[in-house]
Amino acid sequence: MTLRATHVTMAHGGGGRAMRELIESVFTDVFRPPGSEDQARLAEEALREPGARLAFTTDSFVVRPLRFPGGDIGKLAVCGTVNDLAVGGARPLWLSAAFIIEEGCEVALLREVVATMAEEAARAGVRIVTGDTKVVERGKADGLFITTSGLGVIPPGRDLGAARIRPGDVAIVNGVLGDHGAAILAARGDLALSAELASDCAGLGHLMQAALAAAPGITAARDCTRGGLASALNEMAAEAGLAIEIDETRLPLRPEVVGVCEILGLDPLYLASEGRLVLFCPEAEAAAALAAMRALPEGAGAVAIGRAMAGEPGRVTLRTAFGGARIVDMLVGDQLPRIC
After folding, report:
1. 275, pLDDT greater than 60
2. Strand 127-136's sheet: what is its strand order?
3. What's the whole-number mean pLDDT along residues 59-75?
4. Domains in the chain: ranges and CATH
5. Region 271-284: what's the mean pLDDT?
6. What is the pLDDT of residues 248-268, one digit of tens each?
7. What does the CA dihedral 185, 189, 193, 197 come to, rounded to 10 degrees?
8. CA 112, CA 274: separation in Å to the nearest integer?
9. What is the sign, positive or negative, of the torsion defined by CA atoms of 221, 223, 229, 233?
10. How far apart are CA 155 and CA 51, in angstroms?
11. Mean of the pLDDT values across residues 292-311?
């Protein structure tokens, strides 16, 4: 079917011919899901391996603007779900994608977002196998919302989790922090920011697999999304029942991001990074993990930033460049302005 409309109307959510034209022309012709039933039927050789487990995650994505330097909401949706699987040690395999579309949304924008999702899925080695569309009245959504769910396979013998972190484990991040949050703030244009920043949004499945192959003793990993590195470390410290100390001089931050945060009174440690993770591994494997990560584009800037240690459970401390220390607490409330 050929879709001639330039904007989405309520008819495209009514279940009739218009909806079929939208789905087939914009979504299924690009994603090419297996079959046309109301469910995806999945098979994977890795699931037959004794001890293999399924990993399952879901997330909703809202962002303004829908397009931003370095990506769009579609890239965000695919990468975010792939990364949630990857940091648990799973090999991401399948995604679902549900779209809530506001009446009046440009069909050209939808096509652009869907094309981006297909490209990112192919890059990550996953398939978008099922989905859904809903159209809501004008003013009832911020243009477009996307919900993605993901399935992956955790191989036998692999068991990552913050509770497995041990004193002495080294904390490693795969690159500069806070670029996504700062890029979204700059892209909105209502804060008179002139910094040229691009989102760090990226899929990290291949990076995690490379790191695990080089350093099988990796104990835990977490992506630094909403709430940034600070929130990820606080969550991990609490679950591990340990303290974590990071070194301010080792933190990879762009001067532009630091400058934006100084202008707005924000802390870059709390800015979202949609293509960054923090992992912990035994000190004996840290060099191997870093080398494996730096061999890939997504990990070229990988650096060790601190370590876990015995101490007050759940406490995260920043050792400053002047030799002092300050507590990096969990974010209380909302770091304004919101970025998603």
Report:
1. yes
2. 53-61, 144-154, 91-102, 127-136
3. 94
4. 10-154 (3.30.1330.10), 162-327 (3.90.650.10)
5. 97
6. 999 999 998 998 888 888 899
7. 60
8. 20
9. negative
10. 7
11. 97
Say which range, 42-56, 128-142, 219-233, has the weakest mean pLDDT.
42-56
Quote the pLDDT of residue 27. 87
Task: Show the tokens assigned to 157.
Answer: 């013998």
Question: 116 vs 27, 30, 72, 74, CA distance in Å?
Answer: 12, 10, 8, 6
Entry field: residues in the chain: 340
Q: How far apart are the first and last CA of the chain?
A: 35
Residue 234, classed as helix, strand or coil, is helix
Note every long-range contact of 260-266, with CB atoms under 8 Å and residues 24 or more positions apart, other chains counting.
260/182, 260/185, 260/186, 260/193, 260/195, 260/197, 261/178, 261/182, 263/193, 264/185, 264/191, 264/337, 266/335
Q: Is residue 28 a contact partner of residue 20, using CB atoms and an 8 Å limit?
A: no
At a CB cut-off of 8 Å and minimum separation 6, what does 57 contact?
Answer: 81, 84, 85, 149, 150
pLDDT at 235 over 90: yes
Region of 285 (left: φ > 0; alpha: ψ -120 to 50; beta: rest) is: alpha
* Locus of tokens 């924000």: 266
C-alpha to C-alpha distance for 37 and 172, rounded to whole angstroms: 43
Q: Residue for token digits 């240690």?
A: 309
* Per-residue CA distances from 133 to 9, 12, 214 (Å): 13, 9, 41
Place of tokens 């904007």: 7
Residue written as tokens 């990076």?
Answer: 207
Contacts of 32 (CB under 8 A, 6+ apart): none
Looking at residue 50, what is its pLDDT? 86
3-state secondary structure of 205: helix
Alpha helices in 68-178 (DSSP H): 73-86, 107-124
Q: How far apart are CA 331 and CA 96, in angstroms?
A: 31
Chain-wide mean pLDDT for the chain? 92
Partners of residue 135 on adjacent β-strands? 101
